[in-house]
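Posting for a labmate who doesn't have an account.
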Amino acid sequence: MPIRQLLVTIALAWAATLTLALGTEEIKVTVNEGPNSCQDFDAEKKSTKVQKDYSVAFHFTAYDAATGKKIESSHDLGVAPSFPVGQGKVISGLDQGLIGLCKHSKASIVIPPHLAYGTMGKPEQGVTKDTILRYDVEIIDIQPPVPNDFKDIDSNKDWKISRKEAKYYFESKNQNVDIDALFKTEDTDGDGYVSWEEFTGPKGAEGPPSTQQKQQTQEVNPLEQAAAQAAAIFHQMDLDSDGKISKEELAAAFELMGEKMTDEFWTESDTNGDGFVSIQEFIGDPGREEL
């Protein structure tokens, strides 16, 4: 195996080991004001508890839990954001921490790094790979999930409904629907499919990704993506953040995996013999395969 490929393989294994260790850290939620417990609904059948897929509007202020430095706040924007919980719209720790909170409650959610911004951090806001976040939140409103029949019918998730998908869906619901009549009404451009735009039934709030988003997804170079991932791990292994990995730092990565680094491996890794592994030595040229 080429030495650079082996280095990246070790780094990925090291990162996985580190993730398992970090995974023992949990989200801590403390209700400071308002109801500490509540029913799912009030007497008027309105939502009173945050549940998965429910949309929650809330104010928040995010802090570095260690220093107390404010990172960002919805109060500065003058608007309480709203989004469906548990669908990955925000960092994982916040997504999980909001579930179970009651309407009108104020709480603090402490989030470990691996459930915040991970190894990449968010440098533009001063969030590093080691930053523990604290979100002070106030639950303003909770709304039940918006029905999305389109998503349920579109079984292959290609953002268009075929006659076969429609037939299967309605048969599974024991509903006798005239598919030809349905498509005559819904398939307005006559291409044999019902698009999200054409669909007149309940279809949630979010449509298909834009053409630009599709192009960006298609243009992702797997080699560049792998190199970016390796670079992030390089910086995590660089314990003193001096932009290079020392022999001791690489040995520490081996030890974390329960292995011992050999002198031969170090010599092959430090190709220029300067006593350190640079990021260029670590990643190499992602477009060139070494012998």
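Reply:
Got it, the structure tokens are right above this. The chain has a mean pLDDT of 83.
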